[in-house]
């Protein structure tokens, strides 16, 4: 995996603004994902209110919710507040009325509004929806709008045909205003075709290398915009009216900041309608009155995922470890917002801040829904000191899947990231603090990782002397044909003492070797690994029986097993547990 800003920084969250009504959203199942019957693809945020954005008069569901003591009771769940023949529980994905606060609802797709009889305009609903005003549009009202120096411009696509595909990511690089030094301070959606637009992001592009992406031309992209455009500086998703950035900070654009940005629009066209067109975009508000701090984006989480199919609950975690957070910031930073990012099977996410080994707070903690993810904004920015840790937890439900999901951009693969907006922006090459398995991205930048001279080890054109020695040892004693030679067992034991053939870094090197482009080098490396693995079963059996016979064996914290005294290196079996499980797999396969 390439550890470079432009390749992996660009996966981004979608935004839903945290306000008072979100307290109530959390008290009903799927409260943050209730569809707006007036607008395909949009969310009715104030579920119990007549205004889709919350506040003001309550709708029939809101009245019942209030009567039930603002709680999700079995009565309320079994009631059909809007009289459309479906119970509130059925509409909100809790048809058995068993949901409790914090639970993941039994169903989280195919939801409908519990307070509006639908389909709107049907005979069955006549007279039941008189209060519904599909014309309500709430306007964003940022303080900067009242400042005569505030400027704006709209970045949008030219009228572009929407493919008859369920999901399309379309991008366009554009020029930011360059006639001054500005802070980007607010954004507002400018939606042309409400039926298809699901989210819009703007990525700041770094200059320097000549970009392969031309300006003002649309291209089909991934969840990534490409072309050195990696830091997300603006986000909008269905249901949101825009965003005023915290008053102390803004993203720097213009002569001293980003000069180019890429617009990315996620179109959903579930019915695969042909002939649709769209020219949506975002209006960007910017000001020459610079604010005290530049904003930056910090990404944390786990880059090494393996989510087996058919599971109710799979949990993955990733840290921004202390040593790494100390490296990426010189002084405290202040976090103004945070959100988890997963793909379709993500159901729950949290981010914990940890100081001196103790959790100081949750930055996020709640159910996750790809179609309406929550971003948490903090009224008082949260201080993060160098050395503080951030732990991201991601929970997936993979019952609908038949294949393992890994970390990748593809929407049917997964991610486990969190995005934090903070100030002041730090001057770092990679604005992130993540883990690949147990290894931090800070460590991966270094020459030596977990004792392994990682970068030099498997240089295909110029392998390190260590690698040559190990290659020689294994080549002389082992064969890559699936048989275990007696002499190979000893050679493997010896070889696996080397840090590059132990633990996570060893797996990482294997993954890298699969990506070698030189076919000769690739075959050589794969043969080496096949030979190295040829005695796994025999070694596992040996360790397992040794371990059973010898009660003096103990397991160190790093997972190595030491038998007969810690000084003796002869009986260290770092792979005991791994090997033992391989052994059992083999045994199982034979039964
Ligand atoms: C259930 O619906 C009926 C009829 O709309 C209403 O009178 C009653 O208060 C509701 N009960 C609850 C618990 O919401
Ligand atoms: C917008 O906010 C300003 C204060 O910042 C207030 O005076 C004005 O009435 C608001 N406008 C609307 C339409 O709410
Ligand atoms: C955006 O800027 C233009 C001038 O370029 C101005 O006429 C317009 O009122 C501004 N729009 C908003 C919504 O502030
Ligand atoms: C739409 O889907 C078809 C078939 O899956 C695919 O070949 C094509 O590239 C897609 N088009 C776009 C613009 O994504
Ligand atoms: C891109 O489009 C904008 C707005 O239409 C225009 O002002 C600008 O000159 C164009 N830039 C290039 C390089 O075509
Ligand atoms: C999240 O919040 C819930 C409810 O407040 C709590 O029980 C849980 O322990 C928290 N943390 C995680 C990681 O679930
Ligand atoms: C920390 O300060 C040094 C020296 O001023 C600077 O070179 C480095 O880029 C800074 N690091 C960060 C993360 O800002
Ligand atoms: C591999 O070695 C060659 C020759 O010494 C060197 O030019 C190249 O940069 C090395 N590659 C890596 C990835 O270290
Ligand atoms: C078992 O323990 C004894 C000493 O307690 C040691 O001499 C011997 O090597 C150990 N055997 C194995 C297979 O670890």
Automatic annotation (TrEMBL):
Keyword Thylakoid set for record: no
Keyword line: Disulfide bond, Glycoprotein, Signal
GO molecular function, one term: copper ion binding
Signal peptide: 1-20
InterPro entries: Cu2_ascorb_mOase-like_C, Cu2_ascorb_mOase_N, Cu2_ascorb_mOase_N_sf, Cu2_monoox_C, DBH-like, PHM/PNGase_F_dom_sf, S-S_Temptin
All copies of domain Copper type II ascorbate-dependent monooxygenase C-terminal, residue ranges: 293-436
Protein's recorded name: Temptin
Gene source species: Potamilus streckersoni
């Amino acid at each position: 995996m390439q550890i470079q800003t432009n390749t992996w920084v660009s996966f981004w969250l979608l935004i839903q603004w945290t306000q008072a009504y979100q307290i109530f959203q959390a008290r009903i199942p799927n409260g943050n994902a209730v569809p707006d019957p007036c607008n395909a693809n949009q969310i009715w945020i104030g579920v119990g209110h007549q205004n889709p954005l919350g506040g003001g008069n309550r709708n029939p569901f809101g009245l019942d919710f209030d009567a039930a003591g603002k709680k999700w009771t079995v009565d309320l769940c079994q009631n059909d507040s809007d009289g459309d023949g479906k119970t509130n529980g059925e509409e909100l994905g809790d048809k058995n009325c068993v949901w409790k606060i914090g639970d993941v609802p039994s169903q989280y797709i195919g939801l409908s509004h519990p307070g509006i009889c639908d389909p709107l305009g049907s005979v069955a609903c006549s007279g039941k929806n008189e209060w519904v005003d599909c014309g309500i549009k709430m306007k964003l009202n940022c303080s900067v709008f009242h400042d005569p120096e505030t400027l704006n411009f709209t970045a949008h696509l030219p009228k572009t045909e929407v493919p008859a595909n369920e999901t399309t990511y379309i991008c366009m690089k554009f020029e930011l205003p360059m006639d001054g030094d500005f802070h980007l301070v607010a954004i507002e959606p400018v939606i042309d075709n409400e039926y298809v637009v699901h989210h819009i992001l703007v990525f700041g592009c770094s200059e320097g290398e000549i970009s392969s992406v031309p300006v003002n031309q649309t291209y089909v992209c991934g969840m990534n915009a490409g072309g050195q455009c990696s830091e997300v500086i603006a986000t909008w998703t269905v249901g949101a009216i825009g965003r005023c950035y915290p008053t102390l900070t803004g993203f720097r654009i213009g002569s001293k900041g980003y000069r180019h940005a890429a617009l990315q629009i996620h179109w959903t066209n579930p019915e695969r309608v042909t002939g649709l067109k769209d020219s949506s975009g975002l209006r960007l508000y910017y000001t020459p009155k610079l604010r005290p701090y530049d904003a930056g984006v910090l990404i944390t989480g786990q880059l090494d995922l393996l989510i087996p199919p058919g599971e109710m609950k799979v949990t993955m975690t990733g840290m921004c470890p202390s040593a790494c957070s100390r490296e990426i910031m010189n002084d405290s930073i202040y976090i103004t917002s945070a959100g988890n990012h997963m793909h379709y099977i993500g159901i729950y996410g949290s981010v914990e801040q940890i100081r001196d080994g103790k959790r100081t707070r949750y930055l996020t903690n709640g159910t996750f829904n790809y179609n309406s993810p929550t971003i948490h904004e903090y009224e008082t920015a949260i201080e993060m000191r160098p050395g503080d840790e951030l732990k991201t937890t991601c929970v997936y439900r993979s019952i609908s899947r038949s294949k393992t999901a890994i970390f990748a951009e593809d929407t049917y693969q997964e991610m486990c990231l969190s995005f934090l907006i903070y100030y002041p922006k730090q001057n770092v090459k990679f604005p992130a603090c993540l883990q690949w398995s147990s290894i931090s991205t800070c460590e991966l930048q270094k020459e030596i990782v977990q004792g392994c001279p990682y970068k030099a080890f498997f240089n295909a054109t110029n392998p390190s002397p260590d690698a040559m020695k190990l290659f020689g040892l294994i080549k002389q004693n082992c064969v890559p044909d699936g048989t275990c030679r007696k002499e190979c067992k000893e050679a493997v034991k010896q070889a696996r003492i080397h840090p590059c053939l132990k633990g996570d870094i060893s797996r990482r090197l294997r993954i890298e070797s699969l990506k070698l482009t030189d076919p000769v080098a690739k075959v050589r490396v794969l043969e080496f690994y096949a030979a190295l693995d040829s005695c796994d079963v025999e070694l596992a059996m040996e360790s397992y029986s040794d371990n059973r016979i010898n009660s003096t064996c103990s397991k160190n914290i790093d997972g190595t097993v030491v038998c007969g005294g810690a000084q003796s290196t002869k009986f260290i079996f770092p792979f005991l547990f791994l090997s033992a499980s391989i052994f059992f797999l083999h045994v199982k396969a034979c039964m």
